[in-house]
Design goal:
Radius of gyration: 20 Å
Low-confidence stretches: none
Number of domains: 2
Mean pLDDT: 96
Number of strands: 9
Shape: globular
CATH topology of the largest domain: Ribosomal Protein S8, Chain: A, domain 1
Order of helices and strands: EHHHEEHEHEEEHHEHHEH
Length: 333
């Protein structure tokens, strides 16, 4: 098993998505969020867990809930379109979680794509937006290609070398298929651990990461407006340090959708018959494993490790809420 990406836990219990969704919604409401917003964020976090992108799902509640309670993240933002023109829009997240602003942003990008072929939206003035793949995937069910890029506000240290200038700002691209798994690239800009030995032996990955990361910083951060003075301390009281660049392209404007699905299925199906990389038991393109894991989560429940479960139970205790996990001990594996 490769150690550089998310995987289902080797041991734990399985919890139905509906149960986990209701539980997470309660935790978010206990931190001051309104029911509709809490349900929206909970649904996105639980769907991320179902895909086993566990680093960006309900585990992030240990970060979100204290900030909501302490007034560093706005629990009831008034998300709005600050600017709209043709195929583009700018979404102001009003200091809330990025899930609310980006859900609105990608919804608008898709609407514009269906109307004129492409929609491009930036979001700013919000906190962490979760998994980039959450937003690119929204385009798939509308037979659109989706792109999501993000960056948080940070100032590189001039005492460090230029390779550290971009952090691990994420990018995700989602392309719909028919019967084969959709292709969903979801990655940070870091490609390899930064050591002098690796840099000397394999320089190309480091400089390619610099290029990808620079694009992500410029589109997901600078263009999005995360350095606007009005959303920075001391002017703003919110920890609104992240932005995004969200785009959708309507496949119908380029090719008949069924024809494109057939092309994707032919190519993806052929590639999946190739030999897997050493250490893997299947040949899958980006997004392929997440399709499998989502299916298993739907059929058997979302896998929670004991560590993940304890984290969520601790958050429930702090909020004075009950947790549902004991009744699922029979699912232990």
């Amino acid at each position: 098993m490769a150690k550089f990406r998310n995987y289902p836990p080797e041991h734990g219990i399985r919890v139905p998505a509906k149960v986990l969704d209701e539980f997470v919604g309660r935790l978010l409401r206990s931190a001051g969020m309104e029911a509709e917003s809490a349900d929206l964020v909970a649904a996105h976090l639980v769907a991320t867990d179902a895909r086993c992108v566990l680093s960006h799902g309900t585990r992030k509640l240990h970060e979100y809930l204290p900030k909501l309670r302490d007034g560093r993240v706005n629990p009831h933002p008034e998300v709005r379109a600050e600017r709209e023109f043709g195929a583009t829009a700018v979404i102001d997240g009003d200091g809330g979680l990025g899930h609310q602003a980006c859900h609105e942003g990608m919804t608008q990008a898709i609407t514009r794509a269906r109307e004129v072929g492409v929609g491009a939206v930036t979001t700013y003035n919000h906190y962490h937006f979760g998994s980039a793949g959450t937003w690119s995937r929204m385009a798939l069910e509308h037979d659109c290609v989706g792109l999501a890029i993000s960056c948080h506000r940070f100032l590189p240290d001039t005492d460090n070398d230029i390779l550290s200038s971009v952090g691990s700002s994420p990018i995700s691209i989602a392309i719909p298929a028919g019967e084969q798994p959709d292709m969903v690239l979801d990655m940070g800009a870091n490609l390899m651990p930064r050591t002098r030995q690796l840099l000397e032996q394999h320089p190309l990955p480091f400089f390619k990461a610099l290029g990808i990361g620079t694009v992500n910083v410029m589109l997901g951060g600078l263009l999005a407006g995360i350095w606007r003075p009005e959303v920075m301390p001391p002017t703003s009281k919110w920890e609104a340090n992240q932005g995004s660049f969200l785009t959708a392209w309507d496949i119908r404007r380029f090719m008949d959708v069924e024809q494109f699905h057939n092309e994707m299925d032919r190519w993806v199906g052929h590639v999946r018959q190739m030999q897997p990389v050493d250490g893997f038991d299947r040949a899958e393109l980006p997004g392929g494993m997440e399709v499998q894991w989502s299916g298993e989560s739907a059929a058997r429940g979302i896998p929670l490790s004991d560590d993940h479960r304890r984290l969520l139970e601790g958050l429930a205790d702090e909020a004075g809420e009950s947790s549902p996990f004991v009744k699922y001990e029979a699912t232990r594996y």
